[in-house]
Structure formats: C-alpha cells, structure tokens
Design brief:
The complex is a heterotrimer of chains A (299), B (263) and C (371). Helices cover 75% and strands 0% of the residues of chain A. Chain A is mainly α and 299 residues long. In chain A, helix 5 packs across helix 8, helix 6 packs parallel to helix 11 and helix 8 packs across helix 10. The longest helix of chain A is centred in the first third of the chain and has 34 residues. The N terminus of chain A is likely disordered. Chain B is globular. With 263 residues, chain B is mostly helical. Chain C has 371 residues and is of the alpha+beta class. Chain C is built from 15 helices and ten strands. In chain C, helix 5 packs across helix 15 and helix 7 runs parallel beside helix 15. The longest helix of chain C has 36 residues. Classes of the chains: A mainly alpha (299), B mainly alpha (263), C alpha+beta (371).
C-alpha cells in the first residue's frame, strides 16, 4: 500500500537537480543530531553502565539480578499500574475531550479545559500525593465530610488511599489531562458532515461510532494510550510521595540504586532502566504493528 | 438529540469534581496556618519571598525558549517523516518515547560528563551556556509530548494533498511549512506548548544538578521543611501557570482564524 | 645553672610565640587564599537542619565569601554522586564540601573522592568519630525521637513498645523509605534495640536489625503503621501523627509550626540510636582553600555552638562542656541529658551489617501487601 503513494510523491516533486531520496534524509538530520547529542549519548552511558560493575569491568551480573523475584515483582506491579492508569485515563480523557469538542457545550469551556489540562498534566509528585492525602486520607476533607454528613466511613468500607487503587486514582490526575490535550486536535478532524452523512444513510449513533469514528481515530487513540503507559511507567515522584515505603515499583527501586542513601549500586540502577527501555521498545513495536495493520484500511 | 446533551454535561461534571476537589482540599489546608481560624498568612509568606518571583521568572523565560526550540525541531521533522520517510516513523517514535523512561538524573549525569568545563563543548563553563544546555535538556524531556501532539495533529489533516496543492501553486518548502502546515496544526502545537510549559515550570532534577536558579528547586526547598507554605505554593503555582497558559493561548491565536468555531 | 634555665625558658617561649604567630599566619594566609577563590559551593544543607542557616550566615559575615548552595534536599548518596559526576567540571555544579552519613566517609575515601585535612581543633574530636588521616570526621549527631502531633494523639508514647498499643492505630510513620534512607533504616535499627530484649541487639547488630524488622511487622499487623513517608506537612495534616525522626529535625519542626499543631518530641526510654554525620572536602573541589576555611569555621567553638543552637549535638560537645563553653540557656532548650546516656553509637561494621539486612528484607517482612 505504501509503494504507490511514494511513487506519487516522487512524481509530484520531480526536480532535475538531485535525487529525491538524499534530499529526504537531510530533512531529519537536525532531529537526529539533536537526539544524538542530548538524548542518545547519555542513554548510551546508561546502556554501557548496565553491563559494568562498580570497578568498570564488563559483567552480566546486573542483567542477571533483574531476574530476582523482588525485581520481577517490581516490574509486574509497575506494568499493572501503568496499564491501569493508561487504559482508564485514556477512556476517561477521551470522553472528556469528546464532551468539550463535539458535545455542543458552551464555547469558552474548551480553551479553559485545554489550559487547565496543561497545568494538571504536570501536577505530580509530592504536591499531588499531598493533595490526595488531604482529600482521601484518614483525616482527609472528603473522608471527614462523608463521615460527618452521611455517616459513611470510607475506610471501614475497605478503601485506603495508600494502596494500588489509591495510587492509580492519583495517577489519573495527570493521565487524563494528557489524553485530553493530545486527542482533542484529532477530534477536530472528525467533520460534522460525516456524522450527518452517516445519519442520512441510516446509521445509529453506535454504528457511526463503530464504522466511522473508531477506524479513523484508532491509531491516534492507541498511540496516545501508549504515551500514557510510558508516562506512568517512568513516573516516580507521585508513587514515592504517596506509597513510598511499601509499593515496590521499578522506578523506586531504580532511584534507590542510583541515588540511595545507603547501600546503592548504580550499575544495577542502569540495568533496571535498560529493562524499562526494552519494555517501552517492545510496546512501541506492538503499537506500530497494530497501527500498520489498521492503516491499511484507511488509504 | 436531547439525550445526547446529558452525556457531555455528565462527563464534564465528573471531570470538574475529580480535578477540583483535591485542589480545594489543598487550599483548605493552606488556610489553616494560624491556629483556630482561616487566614492567608501562608500566601503572604510565599508571595513576599523575593526568591519566589526571581525563580518563577527564570523558569517562565526558559519555558518559552523551550517551546520555541521544541516547535522548530519537532514540527518540520514530524512533517517530513509523514511526507517522505514513513519507514523512519517507528524509529523516530521510539526515540521520542525514550525520555519518559530514561531517568532525568541519568540524562543530567550524561550532560555533566559530556559538556563539563574541561570537555570539547564546555557548556557548563558559563551561565549563559549552562542555560542553553538546560533549554536543550528540557526540549529533550518535552519531546515525547510535543512529538505525539504534533503527530496526532498532522494525522488529522491531509498533509499530502496540502503539500501538493501548495507546490503546484509554486510555493517553496519553507513557505509550505510555515504558511500552510503550521497554521493547520496550530491547535496541536498549542497542546504541545502547554505540556512543555508545565514540565519546565515544575522540573527539578536538571535545574538542580546544573545549579540554575529555577522554580523547581525553589519548590523543593520550601516543601522540605514547612507544612502550610508548600500547600499555598502548590495552589499559587497552579494558578499562575494556568494564567500563563491562558496568555500563550491568547498570543497564539491567529486573528484570521479567530472566527473558527473549533478554537 | 639558673642562667641556662632562664635562657632555655626564654628560647622555648620565643619558639612558642613564633609557632603561634606562624599558626596565626597560616590562618590568615588561608583566609586570603579563600577570598581569592571568591566562593564556596556547598550541598545538601537545608537552613532548618542543625541550624545550617545560621552557620552559613555566620561564615559569610565573618569572611565575606559567597556561598553557592546546591540542592538542599540531597541525600548522602546524592552528595557523593555529585562529586563523582563533576570530577572534570570546575563550574558551580561541583560541591566543595559534603556532609554525609557516617558510612559514606570510608567509601568516599576508598574511591579517592575526598581529601585529607586536619582542622586546628582536631585533637578534641573523639577518635572513633574520625578517620585517622583526616579525610572525614564527625561534625554533629542526634538521636532518633518520636515527633508527636498533640492535636491528634492525646497521650504521647514514651518508648517503642508503647507504639504497638491500641491507642496508636494508623499513626506511626518513618521519615523515609527504609530501603534507601539512612534515617528510616536507623529507625528500624533503633526499634530492634528497644524493649527487654534490647541487650542482645546491642551486642549483635544483625540481631538488632532482625528484631527491628519484626517490630515493624507487628506494628503493621496491628494496623498502627502508616506506609507513607512522614513529613512535617503530613504530620500537621494528620495523615502521619507520629513520625520517627532525628531529634534536631523534630525540634526544628516544633519551632516552625509554632504550636499549630502543638508538637511533643519524645526520646524513647530504650532503643536510642545516635546518628553521626561527617564533613569532608571534595578531592576535586574547585575552591579548596575556601573549603578548608569552612572546615576551620564549623569546628571552631563558634561553629560548634551554632550547631547546638540548631538542636544538634556538636561532635566536640563533651570537650565544650568540660571547658565550660556551653551557655546554660542553650542547654535548657535540648531534651534532658539523661535521655542521651542510653544512646548507642553504631560502629561502621554495625551499620554495614544492619543496613544489609534491613534494606533487603523490608519488603518481605513488612511489605504491606498493596491491592
């Protein structure tokens, strides 16, 4: 499917002076030069460090250490919380974006939501952890309110903000805005005419969704969910601030090794980070495969 | 039609409650600094601190610089990849996801090794060059969000047709980029700009380890040993950052497209 | 005979005077060299910690040097890492002096990251708190205490076993993550030294570590342990009404909160662990003379007493008390001296053994199963 399109591009841009292919590569040189200088070389240090011990000798011990039960369980919990907050955040964020862009709400709501999402997307770490403690902690505003006004004890019902579900709830605070900000421009691309055309042709709202919206938005939705996943996967400050001494996340383990107060092994930290890079790479590859398959139906 | 109208309002209501209640709880706590009654003393303490103003200003300037450099880097690249090098897409996307999982502390240690005062490119030798290094570091941190936002925006418009149409009218490449493509992805670029701004304002690791007088280290300093001031500071930072984004939006609005309903 | 004795006296007096003036000259020369360097870069010195704010101001006022303060929130590991990362960097990101936990001294020396220097008051520093070559030496210490929010907790606990009781449900928190933070690990260790079985722990650090872990497992099972990192904000808000913290931090918090809420600082009856911090000069310091001047200042009487004002016990405390240099009003601000009689100073070997056990086993023994 890609070949005919490329040929078309080449035909349209036929310039007698240079072969189109060498021109194309020049276009991405600034990006790769920048990435090399400020991202890839420091990453390279990390990759090299993962295979060394503290004296600088080559070793596979750090990689081997990744397969210990504590580390494996840390990865498992990190993956669980990243997946949970990404999927829920993507769903809720999408609904919120839809409501504001295509829900016929007052016009001033959209810019307000966009700017608010901008701030909220980075409201993480200790301030967020504290905000949730102050809201849903044992002495939190909502907890006490429910108790005093409705006689309902949140904690006796089994809820605890210092838990996996509490942390996921806190993560949503920056995941949902991220989804809203990135998917809103894509929703602009859904022309109203398509909705009208579908209705005229007899499609129910559900049918419109299934056959028009989802196929068009699918790659963007998936790509943004992946971004949310990686975002949660790499997050540490909020987790540390809220459930610091109990939840065994890979990022907390990593930071303990790289900047621990006691008994730290930075090379193990690099190996942990390398593991995270590999997982992110694999999920990105899966996304690319899924997207290529779905894109066949778009052109 | 009537049924459809409830759902958007419901979604909005749930969103508003979820996002505002924790802020209200933080605000309520910050008012409790004086025993037995509510007062704004914590806010007075924070706003009166000269370091608050100077570090916030520094971070705002750095944030704007990051947005400009980031946009100039990402928009042409995303456009180019989409148009000419679709096979590079997986690699570029993977590279843009890296900053999310490479800890910032690893990045900055790499910078100190590569660009310290005794290396070929001694960026840490002077204040202005360290600021440049800081901006580039922030562009790197914001890359995932900027790229994904712009890429999603480009996906929503028909890049190929627009380019061909412009070329058939005789436009040069730079003209196409800045006068045809960029206005069409302005909304997406704006999203990326908001995300970048928020990241830079609160960022701590790079600013602290490169020893720059930014807002992130100041937040950390106040938060470490005080109880009520950090809560007040969180609310103030939230409000001011929101206001700055509103300003970005106002300045970014193209007067020609201001009548369009979508923005 | 008398003439010889007199001339001997005269000669030795003159020699002493010459030596004294040479000493004074060196001190002046150092001050001049430091002023030539222009500034001192310090790291991890919050102003509320041991009165460092006053020490920094005092140093600036006395010598007119600029002080560049890096990351006040850095942990000991961060400080050593900062030296490592800035080996080739003479810019303002490289620290000149570091203030780290005891166990970091020898490891930093082994890596060649710190340089030896003996301050004028060297001899008055206890032997077991300093490196023989002068690479690192203790500057202050404190003990772990319970910081209690009196608005929420009506009766303060007096000892570790009290914390297990029914009155303290959902109240007790550590001030850090016991897998990484020195303060938290020492907290677990201290719990292990407490109670009727504490003597076994005093003899064997590994036993103390295990006992500490068992204590916290019980605390967690009883529902008294709050698995979040206790800070002054969460203490005041009510999420962590009892925090196990260094006494100097707890007392500084009491001052900061100004009675809102009222704070009680209790040194437990048993299981009292002292934590010593050490100062060292970076081997790659961009301003070595300023660093040496700083060391002279904080080990002088003036510097050490400023630590005391910040509720820390300066390392030369015994010496200062003996020579009657400690003002009575300063003494009254500290917790009663009797509490410190019980204090255990873990040796380097003790710390190594207990840290190993606590950091590795915390998740297994106490790991709250979060779901």
């Amino acid at each position: 499917m890609e070949q005919p399109v490329e040929v078309l591009g080449q035909v349209a841009l036929a310039r007698p002076r240079r072969a189109p292919l060498s021109w194309a590569w020049v276009g991405v040189v600034p990006f790769f030069a920048f990435a090399l200088l400020f991202l890839l070389v420091p990453t390279f240090y990390l990759v090299v460090g993962a295979f060394q011990d503290d004296a600088g000798r080559w070793t596979l011990a750090n990689i081997g250490a990744l397969f210990q039960p504590e580390v494996m369980s840390a990865y498992a919990i990190s993956l669980e919380i990243s997946a949970a907050s990404a999927l829920i955040g993507a769903a809720l964020g999408f609904m919120l974006a839809w409501a504001v862009v295509l829900g016929n709400l007052p016009g001033w709501l959209r810019p307000t939501l966009m700017t608010f999402s901008g701030v909220a997307s980075n409201f993480a770490g200790i301030p967020l952890a504290f905000a949730f403690l102050a809201t849903l902690g044992r002495m939190g505003l909502v907890t006490l309110l429910l108790q005093d006004a409705f006689g309902f004890s949140l904690y006796r019902a089994g809820f605890n903000v210092l838990s996996f579900s509490g942390l996921t709830l806190a993560y949503l605070y920056f995941q949902i805005p991220l989804m809203v900000l990135i998917i809103a421009p894509a929703l602009d691309g859904l022309k109203r005419e398509w909705r009208e055309a579908a209705t005229i042709l007899g499609a129910s709202p559900f049918g419109y969704w299934r056959r028009v919206v989802l196929p068009i938005l699918w790659p963007s939705l998936l790509g943004t969910t992946l971004l949310l996943f990686a975002n949660a996967f790499g997050a540490i400050a909020t987790a540390y601030g809220l459930t610091g001494s109990t939840l065994n996340l890979v990022t907390i383990l990593l930071y303990a090794q790289i900047r621990g107060d006691v008994l730290h092994n930075p090379n193990l930290g690099y190996a942990l980070a390398l593991g995270m890079v590999v997982i992110t790479g694999l999920s990105n590859a899966a996304y690319i495969i899924l997207r290529t398959r779905s894109e066949r139906w778009l052109r | 039609m009537r049924r459809a109208r409830i759902l958007p309002w419901l979604a909005l209501a749930v969103g508003v409650i979820y996002f505002l209640v924790p802020l209200i709880a933080t605000f309520e706590f910050s008012l409790r600094i004086l025993r037995g009654r509510y007062s704004f003393q914590a806010y007075a303490n924070v706003l009166g601190d000269p370091q608050f103003q100077s570090t916030f200003l520094f971070s705002v300037v750095v944030a704007v610089a990051t947005i400009v450099v980031g946009t100039l880097l990402v928009v042409p690249t995303a456009y180019w990849i989409r148009l000419k090098l679709p096979r590079m897409r997986p690699y570029v996307e993977f590279v843009t996801l890296l900053p999310l999982v490479i800890p910032a502390i690893v990045l900055v240690f790499g910078y100190l090794k590569l660009y310290n005062s005794s290396s070929i490119l001694p960026l840490t030798a002077a204040d202005w060059s360290t600021n440049v290094l800081l901006v580039f570091g922030y562009v790197t941190l914001a890359l995932p969000y900027m790229y994904r936002a712009v890429d999603t925006g480009l996906r929503a418009i028909d890049v190929r047709s627009l380019t061909e149409a412009a070329e058939s009218l005789g436009a040069a490449r730079a003209t196409i980029l800045f006068q045809v493509i960029l206005p069409n992805v302005k909304v997406a670029v704006m999203s990326g700009a908001f995300l970048t701004f928020a990241i830079v304002i609160g960022e701590f690791t790079l600013a602290s380890l490169l020893d720059r007088p930014a807002f992130g280290p100041y937040l950390q300093l106040v938060g470490a040993n005080k109880a009520y001031e950090p809560a007040a500071l969180a609310i103030i930072a939230f409000a001011i950052t929101w206001a700055c984004m509103g300003l970005i939006q106002v300045f970014g609005r193209d007067p020609r497209t201001a009548s369009r309903p979508a923005f | 005979m008398k003439l010889a004795a007199t001339s001997l006296c005269t000669i030795s007096t003159m020699a002493l005077l010459a030596a004294a003036s040479a000493q004074a000259q060196t001190a002046d020369a150092l001050a001049t060299a430091a002023k030539g360097e222009g500034q001192l870069t310090v790291i991890a010195l919050p102003h509320d910690w041991c009165g460092y704010g006053a020490i920094i101001d005092g140093f600036k006022a006395k010598y007119g040097l600029k002080i560049n303060e890096l990351n006040p929130d850095a942990g000991s590991g961060d400080e050593v890492q900062a030296i490592r990362a800035n080996k080739d960097n003479k810019g303002p990101q490289a620290p000149d002096v570091i203030d780290v936990g005891l166990s970091f001294g020898p490891t930093a020396k082994a890596e060649g990251l710190i340089m030896p220097y003996k301050v004028p008051t060297w001899s008055t520093i206890p032997d077991n708190q300093k490196d023989a070559d002068g690479a690192w030496y203790g500057d202050y210490y404190g003990v772990l205490a319970f910081e209690v929010n009196k608005d929420i907790v009506k009766t303060s606990p007096t000892d570790w076993p009290d914390l297990l009781g029914g009155d303290y449900k959902n109240t007790v928190a550590l001030a850090g993550d016991p897998r990484t933070s020195n303060q938290a690990i020492q907290g677990v260790y201290a719990a292990g030294l407490s109670g009727p079985n504490g003597a076994a722990g005093k003899a064997d650090a590994a036993k103390a570590a295990q006992a500490g872990l068992d204590f916290f497992a019980k605390l967690n099972k009883n529902g008294n342990f709050v698995p979040t990192i206790g800070k002054v904000a969460s203490l005041a808000q009510g999420a962590t009404p009892i925090v196990i913290r260094w006494d100097y931090n707890a007392l500084a918090d009491r001052d900061t909160l100004k009675g809102n809420p009222p704070i009680d600082v209790v040194v437990p009856k048993t299981g009292v662990v002292a934590g010593v911090y050490v100062q060292a000069i970076s081997a790659y310091a961009p301003h070595p003379n300023a660093a040496k001047l700083w060391m002279d200042y904080i080990y002088s009487d003036e510097g050490q007493l400023t630590y005391l004002k910040g509720y820390c016990h300066p390392i030369r405390f015994q010496d200062l008390v003996k020579t009657g240099k400690v003002p009575a009003d300063l003494m009254s601000k500290l917790p009663p001296a009797a509490a410190y009689d019980e204090a255990v100073f873990p040796t380097l070997a003790d710390q190594k053994a207990s840290n190993e056990i606590i950091t590795k086993q915390w998740d297994k023994v106490v790991g709250a199963n979060v779901k």
